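User: Good morning. I'm curious how adenosine-5'-triphosphate would be positioned relative to this chain. Could you predict the structure with it bound?
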Amino acid sequence: MKKSPELHKFRTSSQRKEKSHVQYGDAGNSTNRHNLKSHSTLKFIKSATKKVSAIFTIIFLGKRKATSKLAVSDAGRYNYLAREGSSESNYKSFSKFKSFNSFVSSSTSSGQLGTGNFSIEDIYKATEKFSLENKIGEGGFGTVYKGRLEDGCLVAVKRTKKNMQGKHMSEFKNEILTLSKIEHLNLVRLYGYLEHADEQIIIVEYVGNGNLREHLDGIQGNVLEIAERLDIAIDISHAVTYLHMYTDHPIIHRDIKTSNILITEKLRAKVADFGFARLSAEDPGATHISTLVKGTAGYLDPEYVMTFQLTEKSDVYSFGVLLVEMMTGRHPIEPKRPLSERITIRWAMKMLKEGDAILAMDPNLQRSTAANMAVEKVLKLAYQCLAPLRQSRPSMKTCAEVLWGIRKDFREIAISQSSASHHSANFPEKDARKSRRISFEIEDADNYKFISA
Ligand SMILES: Nc1ncnc2c1ncn2[C@@H]1O[C@H](COP(=O)(O)OP(=O)(O)OP(=O)(O)O)[C@@H](O)[C@H]1O
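Assistant: Good morning! Here's the predicted structure, ligand included:
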């Protein structure tokens, strides 16, 4: 099997195992905060174990405490201290859950992670019996509700019918399984899972400031400025890099899109909805996994669509679409526009090629030399992500590093610009002309004929 060069960068399975071993066994390295959390979790585990009854069967997912969050320096260095557990037995329990053999068939069963063990009564209380006022929205998996647990913690509760058999059922379990394995500041966390009567319920971290698409549409909050958009793009690239490179097995999200990016109060991003996620092949040497095409129109990697071969680079392609969306404000497909503008990436890449990236810039964004240059650079990165052949696309880690550089340049230019603001205010046309002329060559724009909607 042919190996893609990027996959060589991934750790071998033995290296991955070694990492897991160290992480799970090395509780002594935790910070005080985490030790405190570990202590309270231990207390919780003891009490939860006592609560096991004939009616409720607990699937214990294992105590996986975050040892630290992702820290990234301006130089683009990553420090991940991922999950760990304090005891081997917890790790074994977690592994058991991972296999899904431990989904027991009882009237109600639950799995929990971190915050508590959930019964259906807890969920009824939290969501006020799934009241309409608490309904957040509808998705492919069913209805989502906001809830408040007894300890005050806000959660999002995804509720779906159990009769969702076969394909959907496996997607539902896939979402839970994947979410339960990951822990990252920029990924929505799974708190618990519950089967009750004919329903499946998952409880995830509540992220209360709408999704990225809503922000770009102006439905939620104020207009996101370029600096905020850059931060959000960086957050997403970190989350996806983590999925691709730092989980036990590489995870391909498969549905990167603006509506799956949830925004925090501080305007940072958390990647959600792993319903389509699928664990990559266990064989670290495998270059792809063959699968039925899933994803959202407008974001789909054309090579994946044609070959059914899924790799991390399919996420990179979708991320390229998302970057274009963030810079232009437009949806990937704009049916009401003239024909030449309907596929946003084609239109934007044409503008870029012609040195007119600024014309593709979201009209809601404030114009400035720094902002114009940042938009152009992000579009240039998007161009690389959107390469028709996956070998030509950068890894997500590279995307993160490039975005860090763009953000750094943006800040520096913005600072120097503000000191010269008096001058710029007097000569706005000249300034705008200057920034419009930042041009670069795109070698093979004809390739974009192959970009599918
Ligand atoms: N953890 C969460 N916190 C807050 N809101 C959420 C959370 N998860 C989902 N939502 C919101 O609930 C709605 C439905 O989300 P869901 O993930 O089920 O479907 P979707 O992503 O909109 O669609 P699809 O399933 O087709 O991708 C969306 O508006 C989303 O913003």
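Residues 1-116, 431-453 have pLDDT under 50 and may be disordered. The two ends are 29 Å apart (CA to CA).
Let me know if you'd like a different ligand tried.
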